[in-house]
Structure formats: C-alpha cells, structure tokens
Amino acid sequence: MHSSSTARFADAARTLTRDARRRGLVAPSFRCPPRLGGADRTLRRRPGGGVVSVRVRERPWPAVLADMIEGVIVVNGLSPPAATRVRTELWEEVTKDVDLHGGSRVA
Asked: Which of 21, 57, 67, 107 is deepest in the core (most CB within 10 A)?
C-alpha cells in the first residue's frame, strides 16, 4: 500500500472508530491487508470487539470504505433497521469531506 492509500485508510479507520463509539457501538480495529491471501475483507471476532482487515491495493476506494463500514455492522451484530440506519450514518460521516475518487472536497 503506498503512502496516500495508507493515509486514507488510517483517516477512514479513525473516523469510523470515533463515530462507532459516539453511537455507543463497539469500534473494531482495522488493518490491511487481510492475512488470508486473496481475500478482500476478513473479520476476526475477539472478546469485546473484532479486527476488520481490508485489502486496499488495486481496489476502488468506495469498495474499501464499504468493507470497513460493513465490518462495524457485523462486529456489532446489527440487523435491519438499525444496520441500515448506522450504515447510512457512517457513510455520511466517512465521505463528508472527501471525494470518493481520491481528492478532498473544496468548499
């Protein structure tokens, strides 16, 4: 993963962690890449949370974000309608100041 991908991944992980906790949810740890070769996303459950591993290299940024957000949903065992609401809210937060195709939004 090159430095801009690393920075984007770390920024998204911080945002999702902060927002999950703010909503009273368990915030998983995020890492990349998954240890399982060929996997785009893996999840390891741990007492009190889990680890969401996501492949960033050679993937569209929206797919990476979707995997990270879905990891929050799965770690917390959310189902509809709560899952839908939280998923939407996390998407809004993580994309608030960023163009999904790579640049920052300019006001």
From this structure: 67
For the chain, report the end-to-end CA distance as a whole number of angstroms: 29
> What is the value of pTM for the model shown?
0.87
Cα dihedral sign, 25-29-30-33? negative
Domain boundaries, the chain: 3-94
pLDDT of residue 82: 98
DSSP secondary structure string, 42-103? Answer: EEEEETTEEEEEE--TTS-HHHHHHHHHHHHHHHTT--TTHHHHHHHHHHHHHTTTB-TTSS
Phi, psi values for residue 11, rounded to 5°: -65, -45
Q: Starting from the edge strand earliest in sequence, which strands make up the sheet with 41-46, in order?
A: 29-31, 49-54, 41-46
Regions in the chain scoring below 70 on pLDDT: 1-3, 98-107
Question: Whats the size of the chain, residue-wise?
Answer: 107
Secondary element (H or E) of residue 34: none
